[in-house]
Design goal:
The chain is of the alpha/beta class. Helices cover 41% and strands 14% of the residues. The structure holds adenosine-5'-triphosphate (ATP) and magnesium ion.
């Protein structure tokens, strides 16, 4: 039997309720999901605070009740957009469809001949990594924007302490 696999990529800095809603939707359409953790080599930077391993933990724990098998695969950047789709495919189980609304991702996969679908955005003004990082830095509440498992992981690694410390000048 041929498995229908869907691919979803993000930086997940951090993983939030918008990502979770998209993945719950994709789970209804495919047999297996591949989640690519992009810019995997980056961490401890204000725009990319968390390691690939920490992001794998956030995603895996949040999807424990998804009911659809999934793989979480860190993918490092390569500085060649023209080769990026092939790079991603080389790191992942074979997939039929890429789910993305990111214009560059859509373009690169379409040019590579992959079927691309663009999921709807959920409450984009607040469900965005940028907004959640801003709140964590300024000490505003952010916990309601991410799954409970992500709150647990971020507290475990002292995420706000890390973000506030690496954003200071010496
Ligand atoms: P950042 O602000 O750091 O770019 P982000 O919220 O855009 O964070 P990404 O990891 O860049 O998160 O996004 C991964 C994928 O999730 C992208 O395709 C993005 O369009 C999508 N996405 C982000 N936020 C939402 C949302 N609220 N609803 C649906 N999809 C979303
Ligand atoms: Mg983004």
């Amino acid at each position: 039997m041929n498995m229908k696999r869907g691919f979803y990529i993000g930086r997940f800095q951090p993983y939030h309720n918008g990502h979770q809603s998209v993945l719950e939707h994709i789970a209804g359409e495919v047999d297996e999901i591949i989640i690519g953790v992009g810019s995997a080599q980056l961490s401890h930077h204000p725009d990319n605070p968390f390691t690939a391993g920490e992001r794998v933990l956030m995603i895996t724990r949040s999807l424990s009740l998804l009911g659809c098998p999934f793989y979480v695969i860190p993918i490092e950047d390569i500085q060649r957009n023209a080769l990026w789709a092939a790079h991603v495919r080389s790191m992942c189980p074979p997939f039929d469809t890429c789910y993305s609304s990111n214009p560059l991702v859509v373009r690169l996969f379409t040019e590579a001949g992959v079927d691309v679908q663009s999921p709807a955005m959920y409450e984009r003004e607040i469900l965005s990594g940028t907004e959640i990082r801003r709140r964590m830095l300024s000490g505003e509440p952010w916990e309601n924007l991410v799954p409970p498992a992500v709150v647990q992981v971020l507290k475990e690694i002292d995420a706000t302490g890390r973000m506030q410390q690496i954003s200071r000048n010496d």
